Structure formats: C-alpha cells, structure tokens
Amino acid sequence: MAGLLRRSSRNHLFRHPGQLVLALLGVALGVAVVVAVDLALESAFRSFALAGEAVSGRATHVIGEDEGLDEQLYIRLRVEQGIRNMAPLIRDDVALAPDSDDRYTLYGIDPLIEKDFRAAWQKQSAGGDSGRLLRKLLTEPNGVLIGERTARRLHAAAGDTFLIRTATGLHVLTIIGLIEASDAVAEQLLDKVIVADIATVQELTGLYGRLSRIELMLPEGAEQGPILEKIRRALPENLRITAVETQAQAAREMTEAFSVNLKALGLLSLLVGLFLIYNAMLFLVVQRRGLIGILRALGVTRWEIFGLILREALLLAVIGTLLGTLAGIGIGRFLLPSVSATLSSVYFATGSDTLLIAPEQIFKAVALGIGASLLAVLPPAFEATQVSPAAALARSRLESGSKRMVRLGLGFGLLLIALGLAVIELSESSIRFSLAGIFLLMAGFALLTPAATLGLMQGIGRLVESRSIIGRLPVRLISAEISRTGIAMAALMIAVAATIGMDLMITSFRQTVSDWIRTSLQGDLYVTLTGNPAAPGKAAKNRKLKAAIQALPGVDATSSVLRTSLPAPTGPLPAAVFDLNERSHAGFLLLQQSEAVWERFEQKPTIFVTEAFAYHHRLKLGDTLTLLAPTGPAMYQVLGIYADYSGDRGHIAMSRRQYLRHWPDLGFTGIGVYARREAGITELEKSIRRTLSAGQTLRSARAIYEASMHVFEQTFAITETLRGLAAGIAMIGVFGALTALQLERARQIGILRAIGLTPAQLYRLIATETGLMGLCAGLFALPVGCLVAYELIFVIYRRAFGWTMAFHFHPEMLLYGLLLAFGAALLAGLWPARKMARINPAEALRME
Prior knowledge:
Blueprint: H1 2-15, H2 17-56, E1 61-70, H3 71-80, E2 86-96, E3 99-109, H4 111-114, H5 120-123, H6 130-139, E4 143-147, H7 148-154, E5 161-166, E6 169-179, H8 184-189, E7 193-197, H9 198-205, E8 210-216, H10 224-234, E9 241-243, H11 244-254, H12 256-287, H13 289-297, H14 302-346, H15 359-385, H16 395-426, H17 431-463, H18 469-480, H19 482-520, E10 525-529, H20 538-550, E11 555-566, E12 573-579, E13 589-593, H21 597-603, E14 606-610, H22 611-616, E15 624-629, E16 632-643, E17 652-655, H23 656-659, E18 670-675, H24 681-691, E19 696-700, H25 701-715, H26 717-744, H27 746-754, H28 759-801, H29 811-837, H30 841-846
Parallel strand pairs: 3-7, 4-6, 12-17, 14-16
Antiparallel strand pairs: 1-8, 1-9, 2-3, 2-5, 2-8, 4-7, 5-6, 10-18, 10-19, 11-12, 11-18, 13-16, 14-17, 15-16
Helix pairs in contact: 2-12, 2-14, 2-15, 2-26, 12-15, 12-17, 12-19, 12-26, 14-15, 16-17, 17-18, 17-19, 17-28, 18-19, 18-28, 19-25, 19-26, 19-28, 19-29, 26-29, 28-29
C-alpha cells in the first residue's frame, strides 16, 4: 500500500507541473528575500568589524577619545604599570594632492609591537618577508605600505612615490611594499588604507606627542579582570577603556531599528509566500479528492493520507528552500550596495561590496523555509483526512465546507486583530513585539478577506441581478469558489496594504524631514572643515577663518558647530557644540523648552537634547545629565528638547562657551554664514572661496538640502526594493491561483462553450472575474494600509528612533493602491483567460 501511495503521489505531481512550480515558487521566493536581507545585513556588519582588524589585528580593548591622547599615557601604562600587549595608533584622513575629494586613511603603527597583534599587513605582506618590510618601515623616510587594490587605483608599484596632503602641507610617500589580500573581503578592507611607522605619521600630520588611541590585547578569562582594573585606576577621569566587542555590539544596537525594519519586510515576503504554498497544496488536495476517496475505500487510513500530503510538502519545501537559498545569495549581492550605502550615510562607514556567507545564516533560512512550508500545508493536509469515500466526488461538499471555514476564519481573524492591538499596546518600547503585533493585524485582516468577499459579492450581486448571465456569472463564480478566490485575494490584499502603509509612512516621513531641513538651514552658506581635531594649530586656524569670513562685505553674522563626543559614565555621548547668533536660533525646532531658554543656554551649565536622545536615555525637561570633564564630573540640566532627524540615537547640544569651560578647543567642523539682505549670494560665495584652503568646502543651503534629501531617498531605496519583491510574490500567487482555478474549471468552461458561449465572451467573463477580485482586494487593502501607516508612524518608528512624525495623508496613495491591486489581478488573469477561451469544448468535457 505504501508503494501505491508513493506512485500515485509522484504521478500526480508530474502530471501537474504548473502546480508543482507554483508551490516551489511560494517557498523559494519567500526564503530568497529573507536570506538576501539577512546576508546583506550581516555582510555589512561583518565588514565593519573586519575593517578594524585590517590594521589593528586581534585587539580586544581600546582607549581613546576624539581629541586624541597624550602619548605619555601610553608610556605610563607600559613602563609604570607594566601593561604589555599594547599598541599605540594614529589615524588621520588625508587627501591625494591632485584631487582633494579623494580621501585616504593614514594609519601610524609601531611595527615592533604590532606584529604581536597579527594585523593584516603582517599576515599578508608581499612575498612573506615581513622582516624586510619591518626594517624598511622603520628606516625608509616616508615609507608606507598600501593594499594591492590601492596600488592599482594609483597605478603604482613597490618603489614608486605619490603625493598626499595633510594639515601640514604636501608630502611625498614611498611605497616600500604591497599588502597582499587573501580574499576579496580583505582586499576591499585594505582599499584606500596607507600604513606607516607611527613616528612617520606624527611628522606628516604634525601630531607630535599625540595618539589617536591605544589598543590592547588582554588575556581571556579570570586573568583579564585584575589587568582591566589596574588600567582603569591609571586612566584619567574622562577616559574609559572599551572592549572591541562592546563597540561592535553598540554598532548593532545603533542600527537595530534599521535591521528589524528590513527583516520585517523580508518576513512579509515569506508571509505572502505562505499563501502561495497553502493555495498550491490545497489545489493538489482538491484535484485528488476522487483519488483520495478511492484510496480511502481501498482501506487507506486517514493518517496515511495525512502523511502522504506532508511528505509531498516536505519534498517541495526542501527543494524550494534550496532554490530560494541560492536565489537569496544572488539577491543579497544585489541588495548589499543599498544596505551598505544606507549604513554608511546614516550610521557608520562599512565600505562593503562583498557578500559574506555564514553557515548559521543558511541553516536559519533552511529551518525557516521548511518550517513555514509545513505550517502552511497543515490545513490542506487536515482537510484531506476528512474526505470520506462517499463525499469525495462532490465539489459542492468542498465549497460548503469552505464556507464553514470562512465563518471560522472570520472569528479567528477578529481574535488575531484584537491580539495584535493588545501586543502593540503592551509591548512598550520593544520594536520586535510591535512588528509582531502588526503582523498579527495583517494576518487577522487576511483571514477576514474571504468573509468580506462573500458579503461584498452579495451586494454586487443585487446590483447586477437584472443584467445578462455574462454580467452575473463573475460575481457568482467568486462566491461559489471562495476556497480558491479568497486565498488569492488575501495574499494580494496583504501586499497592497503593505504598499499603501509604507507609501503613506515614507511620504509622511519625507515631508517631515523636508520641513525640518528647511527650518534648520537658517544660514545662506555653510563651510565644512575636515581634519584631525587634535592637529596642532587647527583650532586657531578655524577661529582665524571664521573671523576672516565675518569681516567680508555682505556677511551679516556667522555661527559654528563642532561635532564631537563627550565622555559620560555610560560611555561617550555624541555632542554638537554651537556658537550661535540671533538668526540661527530659529533653526532649532524646540518641542519643549524652559523660560529664558537662549540666555540660560549660553550662560548656565545647560544643554539641549534631541528628541531621539531624550527618548533613548529617558530624559525629561529639567533632568540633569552627568558628563566626565577632565576636571571631574560636571552636571548639565536639560533646558530644551528639539526635533532632529539626522540620526536615530540623537545627540546633545551645548553652547561653545560652556564647552570651553571644561574641554580643550578643538576648533569647528562647520561654519554657517548669514548674508545681509542686500548682499549677492553668488559674489559672496566667490569671496568666501578665496579664503578657504584645501580640504575646506563651501555649499549653499539649497545644495545641502538637496544632498540631505538624496540621503533620505537612498535610505529608503532598499525598503522600496523589498516592498516591490513582496508585491511581485503576491502577483505570482494571484496568477498561480487563477491559473489553477481555470484549469480546475475546464469541465464547467466546456459546458459553457457547448451551450453557445463564444471565446470572446468567455475571455470577458474571466477577465471581469479577475478584475473584480483585484478591485475587492484593493478596497479591503485601503483601511488596512491606513492602519499599518498609522502604526508605523506613531508606534514603530517612535519606538525605533524616538522621533515624532506628522501624518501627511495623500489620497492619491489610496488610488494608487487600488489601481495596483486591480491591475495586478487583471494582468495575472490574462493568460488563464486566453488559455480557457481557446479550449475545445469536446476536450474539456472529456477531461474529467
């Protein structure tokens, strides 16, 4: 009997390749998107971690701050405290002399110590002769190592020279060797990296007696604790030692909302794919009702039938998951540049264009694909066990049973909606639980779709009651075969609702950000200053430049900002240090503020915090924040909370006057220029450019606005791609469901053709039915999409980023969603309609 079941299963699958392909597509596409998102994100994060290892090697802890360190601290730790396995490091951005926009990273290391850290230059040095390179690094004037990709970029080889520009002027460097990369990832990480002896870099940059950071390689286990405590006691009050793993974890936490958002969109594609799997497997069961009835009459038990369906599903799941994993790797390569660009623009530089594949990610995808497939096939498999021999040939019995399931789905859907709202309300700040709540809402509304369809068809049926049979038949067919049409419409409704929700959210966010940028840019022109903040004389040069700009004809006022980080008991906090004027005050969108806010901001130990910073650090107006100044802890009162969408973790804002009371002057990172009303901006821009030196750029407020909005569009490009994939999967599902439905109707269509229905009439009949299905799915998607947008704006993004956004309602988005659903269903029905219109009535009547 087992052999008979296997043969019947195999023969049926091979006789219906279309349904086989549909089931495989459902698994493969859903898994592919999940795998692609996971691989792209992990590759970007992994490349960020590997970038540090390219030069630093196996460092476990780091000591450092923005203004750099006195190298005497390194000497005290090594000589007086006896700390070993430490490496000093200097890092600075330099430019190639011919092209100031082409930036390279210059690292200064101690080659005698660095070899213990096994950095990339030690492990992959050209020719394996690291000893020779070591000697040349120490003895060759301005000798440097570069990666092979950098050498190709410079069209240079070992022994050649090239020019760079630093804060101290132009310098000629000699390439003493190339760092060979073991793979594409290592080659990429070493791109635009220049490695030199630390004394050489101090001379090139003028950072005499200064270090960027100290890296340590501490033993693991119990030995690490006493050494860490010894180091902490020796450090000044404002310095902290941080584990490299902690820095990597902080980077992941910083981008958690972005990661969860992308993974949620990937899971949405899998959710839509589950409907494809369910629909395909249900069709395979329905097609074999007669065969299942005969097998039951021959003595096959219900559980043997259940096992047969599960084995088929398992086989399809394994094949589909493998195909989806391979496709996901390909899609991941396509998505990686977008993911890396977003991370680099908003969070930190990753520079990753190589996909890194980890076995655990593949295993997770396989488990997810197979598990989801088996879950989706349980209802059809259970239905197959309920088929009695007598009822097997009765289609009406199936549809009456389906209508009972519709009523059950209505109750269960309402339960899921209530549960989803409860999860969202009770999840507090958890992004994952909030997204789970939205998934429950969408699943609940999907279960309501068949019941809503029956109700809508009853209303439409009354309207077309007086029309011809061609006008009434599409409505009746949708209702009569709700077991097929309801699932296809539910899948399409979810995809369209997600599209509407994401469109409304993105449009609202875009408008909010646009209004914020226009308000923030109160100046006319902005100067960007680059360079190492610890470079000698940088602060004095910046102040001199600001004074020179202020003295130009046509300049009414100037302002400045320093982007830095300030030490706190919990770790360094991002900060913006402002020197403001009356006109620049309007650039702060203060959501909450105290009395006499600007006078107190300048005169008292007070700070502003961004809305995101206040949310993540649970700060309120009037609270105090402790910062670790070089002279000891300093308390600052929160004077105002303002809107800022430049980062999802936020920052603090402090007046320059209050900053200089405790910290050394690091100059500026930007200068704002406010022109007189009668001044010509073009002429003023030319005058300011004449005062700038290399590495200093000038942009208008309009140019900054356009660049900022470009970053915004780039940030959501990956979201648009994933949303399009989900919609594409839904369209494939509708196409497969309609194709299966028309093939199953072959006998009915043969009867209609036999009684005189022309091919053109049959074509219109099927096209009307599919268009009506799409229209209904679109109508159901409108309120669901608005609800999704509301939850995304006021719950998900508030909890993820701490931002408050305005809801900007655009009716054209709803019209677009409606047309999308209608057009997708109509297009999906074209081929089945064309195929059925050409069917031979005699052949159709003999098919069953």
